[in-house]
Fold this protein.
Amino acid sequence: MSNYLVHPASAVSGAVRVPGDKSVSHRSLMLGGIAEGVTEVRGFLESEDCLSTMKAMQALGVRVERTGEREVRVHGVGLKGLKGANRSLDMGNAGTAMRLMTGLLSGQSFDSELIGDSSLMKRPMERVAKPLREMGAQIETLQGKPPVRIAGGAKLTGIRYDLPVASAQVKSSILLAGLYAAGPTTVIEPAITRDHTERMLQSFGCEVTAAHGEVRLTPPSRLEACSLEVPGDFSSSAFFLIAGSIAQGDGLTIKGVGINPTRTGLLDILALMGANLRVVNHRSAGAEPVADIEVRPAKLKGIHVPEHLVPLAIDEFPALFIAAACADGETLVTGAEELRVKESDRIAVMAEGLTAMGVTSEVLPDGIRIQGRPNGPVFSGGNVDSHGDHRIAMSFAIASLRAAAPIRIADVANVATSFPDFPGIARAAGLNVELI
Ligand code: S3P
């Protein structure tokens, strides 16, 4: 098992460039694979999760060429051109890949089976299977969990679906099936969630409109290959936004980060906590907005995180809990029960680690209450277990900036699912992370 040993460091400085966006990279392979023509993708995230999607698309008959560092070329086979894989498709640790592929495979003429690693095999899949069945798909799960078996040859019909949970994965899965359905598909969202699928579908020439919480897709006769640029992953930048806020030193500039407003809830939450952030040099990477973010040390204060920001910061809570521990007063997170069904139960696992580090917290069914300590070392140091969750491992690495003694973080191999060179980039910023 691989672990991190993180020695306390007190200051961070310089410029950081984080790797490509995971959500956008997954989607570039799926949509590129069913488009007509060759889709060039720049800034692609070469992480384990995206490689699971790449292997799955290859097994379905799509040629994917790696043309350079962070560059791939996807040779699309057209909407009807995928071929059945004669084996189970292993999506590794990637929930996004499994849920989106379930939608995509629902409209094919062949049978498919999706499996994953021990974490993914425990994650809920009925949230996608149920609406897809309403569209006419034939899907089986095992007590709601993978393996997901999809029978080919189903005739899909567009539906109007009211999402019971704010989930971009469920929305996207339905939209991908909608590409193969008779008639339009409409998804109604209870709260805004990331809209990368909608934006990218438009880049491929598909008619998708969004207004008043409703997303409507009209099935296209074809998708047209295009060139895509993947922005830096805002969720990977989150660790450095928190690092720059809680450490001493000059702060950090994070370059070329995606700032799609459906992803940047953490910026609003940190601003409410008193963080010193500046978003500069706005530009665009195709359909996605990009900027540099400057962060300087700040005295953070505890807040009740507004619930409407939860889906807009859904992957950033482990890192935010570290900031909360360094803030003056109490931070309260509610309306965040979805955190319990991520790569780990992120409320329980973070609370366990915070307790091990001497931080007081109270676990709630849908969130957590964290007692902050604004001055001096906050984390005692010692052992924490990431439970194989990449974002928990990286969050406790950032805690070393306010730790009294080294932190040993167990089971960190899955950092490679989203941020393969995290230790190197963190070291360049001033952290003292060692893989042991
Ligand atoms: C994702 C959506 C979110 C997020 C995940 C990536 C996506 O999941 O947590 O990391 O790419 O659509 P949910 O839709 O389950 O909230």
